[in-house]
Design brief:
It is globular, with a radius of gyration of 19 Å. By secondary structure, it is an all-alpha fold. Helix 3 runs parallel beside helix 9.
């Protein structure tokens, strides 16, 4: 395959990434809930209920946000309040609910710390896909790493920090520092994205963020931002909830072969 065809194939994949990555994140959440429930020793009925609730909840949320975008309701920028702002508020509330309820406790305590960190590596391919959208003229420059979005660093460092914690030790201070760093970069791009909507037009009328109001790109905020924000909050809870050393009382068993960190 020549270079031109190869580049074309890569570029054609980038829009599909806004479907592939969210679906993989949903699958990872289902897997994580199942593994965490098993490691915590929950009975089979509780395990099945947790997994089924996750599958139904993810399907309803992803389907509902897709339909809202397809109907055009999210493009009502002049409404008060704009439906897109309501979506952002819903993402924030859902992230907090996921992290700080018994649902989030299962993930925070039942999964190894390195897994919670490493999953945030999805932000690396996401940022590459977003940059492609900028180069195609779909997304404004300020939302890419060519502009003011540095979240690609979170994706890269998530893989590095996750590996350090998995193979080199607990790294609780490292994880805490990385988590603050990643959350700050996430809040930075979310703020930029909101200010770039037609309601605010902070960066000018020629640099508007309208594309995320359409499917499949609505899953960028509705699924991927949700996963990033909830993930950071779960990590904070994990750092507070688990013992400092594996020998401490309360350490969970590891029947599926994941080393607990």
């Amino acid at each position: 395959m020549d270079a031109t065809r190869l580049n074309g194939s890569v570029n054609d994949f980038m829009p599909a990434a806004f479907v592939v990555i969210p679906v993989l994140l949903a699958a990872a959440l289902v897997w994580g809930v199942a593994v965490a429930s098993r490691r915590l020793g929950e009975d089979r009925a509780t395990q099945r209920r947790a997994v089924l609730t996750t599958i139904i909840g993810a399907a309803v949320w992803m389907g509902g946000t897709w339909l809202a975008a397809a109907s055009g309701v999210l493009r009502r920028w002049n409404a008060t309040p704009p439906p897109f702002v309501i979506l952002i508020a819903g993402i924030s509330v859902l992230s907090v609910a996921i992290a700080f309820t018994s649902y989030g406790r299962r993930l925070a305590v039942g999964l190894p710390l390195w897994v919670l960190v490493a999953v945030q590596g999805f932000r690396l391919p996401l940022e590459l896909a977003m940059h492609e959208m900028y180069e195609r003229g779909v997304m404004p420059v300020q939302m890419s790493y060519a502009g003011s979005n540095y979240d690609i660093l979170t994706g890269i460092t998530a893989l590095v920090v996750g590996a350090i914690v998995r193979f080199g030790g607990h790294g609780r201070v490292l994880v805490a520092a990385w988590n603050v760093f990643g959350l700050a970069l996430l809040l930075n791009i979310v703020t930029i994205a909101i200010l770039s909507t037609p309601r605010f037009s902070y960066y000018g009328s020629d640099r508007l963020n309208e594309w995320v109001a359409d499917p499949p790109y609505v899953w960028l905020p509705a699924v991927m931002v949700l996963a990033a924000l909830a993930g950071h909050l779960v990590i904070f809870r994990a750092l507070r909830s688990r013992p400092t050393r594996r020998s401490d009382p309360g350490a969970v068993s590891d029947p599926v072969g994941l080393e607990r960190r």
